[in-house]
Amino acid sequence: MTRDTEKPTAMETLLSTLDLEPIEVDIFRGRSPQVGWQRVFGGQVIAQALMAAQRTVERERTVHSLHAYFMRPGDPSVPIVYQVERIRDGSSFNTRRVVAIQHGKAIFALSSSFQVEEPGFDHQIAMPDVPVPEKLLDEQQIAAQFLANAPAPIRKYWERERPIEIRPISLTHYFSDKKLDPVQHVWVRATGPVPDDRYYQAAILAYLSDMTLLDTSLHPHGTSIFDQMIQVASLDHSMWFHRPTKLDDWLLYTQDSPSASGARGLTRGSLFTKDGLLIASVAQEGLIRKRANE
Questions:
Q1: Do 262 and 288 contact (CB within 8 A), yes or no?
Q2: Residue 75: other Cβ atoms inside 10 A
Q3: What's the average pLDDT block by block, 10 residues per block, for the chain (294 residues)?
Q4: CB neighbours (10 Å) of residue 126?
Q5: Is the CA virtual torsion 213, 216, 221, 227 positive or negative?
Q6: In 3D, which of 226, 223, 225, 282 has the Cα closest to residue 251?
Q7: Hey, what long-range contacts does 176-182 have (CB within 8 A, 24 or more apart)?
Q8: Out of 48, 201, 210, 227, which one is annotated catalytic?
Q9: Known catalytic residue at 65
Q10: Where are the alpha helices (DSSP H) in the chain?
Q11: Which end of the chain has fewer surrounding CB within 10 Å, N or C?
């Protein structure tokens, strides 16, 4: 299938959505790409809120952590207003709180902390030993080999152009009801150039951090987010930025889900560069609820 060269690429569209419109002091407006989604992708809201917060701190201060809550589904047909509150400006750290608003109601809230870069102790866990992305099926190969008889939601997901390419180590959970260990390894990379700008790099890393996490908590239960009998939604999301990266190559997103209970699943994630540098850690709790029989 050929793509209209006059149409922006998925990465160009993402970068455009991150270029927020300032409408007042510490108030920004963000828009959503019109791609047929019924609600705004959670990673987009995280990334836009982080961009809003970053625009209120000095350039030499970079984000080291964020903590967010999803309160209502975002409506992709109307803009999202981001209001930034300057909680604290210290000699080393800055704290910001961002509330995302649609239809007069808060849909999302994010707190983030920024730090002046400084030297210190340095250690990290080792990256798991997994197959390199070049030895895995790419998205076109997955579509050709597996999608002919796949359920419609899975076909729609894999056939849509996205700003982030994913290559799972295993595809079993997409096409099987086998109960698996609550572990998942996924290679991810940007499908187009990312600006050499720490603000955009952090925001895109936050965007992709919301991908595939909820699915890991469903592995032990023989189902996935594409199961029409399962209601899934992100509830909260935390992220720690350890080391900078330019996002110009593959990243390994290794995930595990230590617990699911009370219709909620918890998943932890680590993001490594291809040469094994740990750049970020993630934790997310999501709603994983069986729908009532209709």
A1: no
A2: 15
A3: 68 96 98 81 97 97 98 95 98 97 97 96 97 89 73 71 92 84 96 96 98 94 87 96 96 97 97 98 96 67
A4: 8
A5: positive
A6: 282
A7: 176/222, 177/222, 177/223, 178/222, 179/219, 179/220, 179/221, 179/222, 180/219, 180/220, 180/222, 181/219, 181/220, 182/216, 182/217, 182/219, 182/220, 182/256, 182/257, 182/258, 182/260
A8: 210
A9: no
A10: 10-18, 42-54, 139-146, 152-159, 172-175, 198-209, 213-216
A11: C
Instruction: Supply the pTM of this predicted model.
Output: 0.93
DSSP state of 147: S
Task: Tell me how far apart the terminal alpha carbons of the chain are, to the nearest angstrom.
Answer: 39
Residue 248 DSSP code? -
Structure tokens at 107: 């849909």
Per the structure block, which two tokens stand in for 7?
């149409």
Nearest to 187 by CA among 164, 206, 210: 164
210 as an active site residue: the answer is: yes
- Out of 209, 234, 257, 270, the active site residue is 234
Burial track 141-167 (b if 16+ CB lie within 10 A, e otherwise): ebbeebbeebeeebbebbeeebbbbbb
Q: Is 284 a catalytic residue?
A: yes
- 230: which 2 tokens? 């399962």
CA–CA distance, 124 with 208 (Å, rounded to integer):
21
